[in-house]
């Protein structure tokens, strides 16, 4: 009985997140190529009028339906009932750098966490009109059709994706060695510029795996639900349970998980052998 009620509630929350993502996606399409302002929050970390308009639209939908819930939104911070054990994590435009350069690889990412566990995730790419949805126990879909991860069983047959955080010039933990070594071991490593879409692409079976550090909760919470419900695996690099607050995670089809984790651990030593020195 309780389970059924929980699943029914999750479906309601999934539909509310979908309404918010579709509304925000339409706004992103409207502003594309017509930006009034592009500001640097910190070097390389941009915010545009489209990010703000998208976020305002998402907040309006969530606050109208669920005024008692907490919200963590990238541009507005913490809002709503901060004592609630229901918290929405919102990225109104994931892939702002692409978007500002008129490269249509970007998304809206909306997740619901219950007691800090992501349970509902919606990622919407308004340029391809691709809607990725999942909720714990309800499965994962792409444009309302069930989706699942790949069955690729070895890194040498895999296509992976990663990203580089905005602090990459300030730390040696910048993912360059990992990128170099995994490029060597696989069919390729893509850098597409939207963490939420990277996770969605693993969930729907286009890509076999993803890793990244320096992420925020709003970048990854929705995508984590997509990958898990699509049959994949999400952990820390060493295979231990992921701490989303650490901003570091590895997501794969499950079959590749140990091999990718081992390669990431070896990367700092191995990459230095691959770089040409005169
Ligand atoms: C960024 C994107 C990018 C990732 C960065 C994120 P933003 O989000 O997800 O792929 O590499 O770490 O911050 O700034 O476009 O919302
Ligand atoms: Ca983001
Ligand atoms: Ca963003």
Automatic annotation (TrEMBL):
It holds the Pfam family Inositol_P. PROSITE patterns: IMP_1, IMP_2. GO terms for biological process: inositol metabolic process; phosphatidylinositol phosphate biosynthetic process; signal transduction. Mg(2+) 1 binds at residues 74, 91, 94, 219. Mg(2+) 2 binds at residue 93. It catalyses: a myo-inositol phosphate + H2O = myo-inositol + phosphate. One of its GO terms (molecular function) is inositol monophosphate 1-phosphatase activity. Gene3D superfamilies: 3.40.190.80, Fructose-1,6-Bisphosphatase, subunit A, domain 1. The keyword Magnesium applies. The keyword Membrane does not apply. Keywords: Hydrolase, Magnesium, Metal-binding. Its cofactor is Mg(2+). Its EC number is 3.1.3.25. Belongs to the inositol monophosphatase superfamily. This is Inositol-1-monophosphatase. It comes from Rubidibacter lacunae KORDI 51-2.
